[in-house]
Amino acid sequence: MAKPHPSWGLQDPETPASPRTMRTLRKIQSHQVLTTSSALIAQTQSRPSPARPSEYTSTDSPAGTTRTLTHRRARSNSDAAAREAALATAIPTQRRPARKTGSGVGVKRSLLENLLRDGPHNGKVKEGLQELKYLVLSTKVDADGDGMSPYRIYLWLVLLNIPPVPTDDYLTLVHRGGSPAYTKIRNDTFRTLATDPLFKRRVTEASLIRLLNAVAWKLHDSKVKPRSRPTSSRRREMEMLVNTPPSIAEEPSADTAIYVQGMNVLCAPFLYAARSEVEAFALFHYFVTKECPGYIRGALDGVHRGLRLVDRCLEIVEPKLAAYLSSKSLSAELYAFASVLTLSACTPPLPEVLHLWDFLFAYGPHLNILCIVAQLVRIRDTIFQSDSPGRVLRSFPPLEAKGIIAMAVSFVPKIPDDLYEEMIHHAK
Description:
By secondary structure, the protein is mostly helical. Helices cover 56% and strands 0% of the residues. It has 23 helices and no strands. Helix 14 packs across helix 15 (319-327). Its main location: cytoplasm. One of its GO terms (cellular component) is Bfa1-Bub2 complex. One of its GO terms (molecular function) is GTPase activator activity. Residues 146-364 form the Rab-GAP TBC domain.
């Protein structure tokens, strides 16, 4: 288990600016990094076997290998009777090197896992984060055939700078019962990634309901201010809200909905990758309130802005395709709504979604716009040759995260600065 080293801190002690300002600055810096890295990505695409592990495709990456994993998958960790039993059943039956010892003898770790586990060199968090992001881009997160990684969830927590949430705080929300959005949640959860056997094997509908309902209560409490002194029976709940870490407790805007259709799909990868519901809750609540609050407002204005950005970016990077779709009256509003709202989690397979999200959390979720454009460009010939392009666009082909990421990075230098700024802020 490669838990992040305490020196990551999940806070930047050298930065006195507000969290929102720093998030924006980091995304602009990521734009600059990706712009200068695009040439490297383009070069490594044509290399059959990269010479260095720091290049885009690592020879240690399992993406290009064939593995037969015969292990059994436990139910969601949150629903298992014992965590240790669930972990034991997740170990492949094939021969493996000796288990990790105190000295790490017999264990081969990736550069990414080592950096995450050991912390930034000399305690330099800023430089360490830049190195961590680059390793996500260049070497990929180690995972099995189901997309499961022992350290991915900790990587996400570090990249998004999310502090721990006490388990009791989550349980308090769960024990409150059905939220005002409970009926809407139940109408959606049973069909969440319904055709994905990996998701169904690992995550139960009950855990999905609990998490979405807890987030709905959290959003509801942030919008409704108590008019009177809380009674003793409510005191614990109010103390929990007051004592919640700032990055979790900041209030959303007044028009933020406590649940909108599609949040169930956006929540699904967090539950799949997490080792507990509490980790998934911390990530998902942070994400919908800090990274994309515009996606859960009643009018979904952030999603609609993102769809317009898809059209505008496509006009820049592939004008012929954009003109053809426009002539057929096929705007992104008609075919890319779910892809924008769910950060492409609506397109299987799930292990590729997790790989794509590693990149988005490292360099900014706004880059999902360019990833959607990349998916369109990759099926350009099929669209041109089809008698009914609208039918082609009803469902995108299975995700191939490596190629999509490489193409999206190559688009970054082509996007004007003002348009890129709109991408950064469109989901706020």
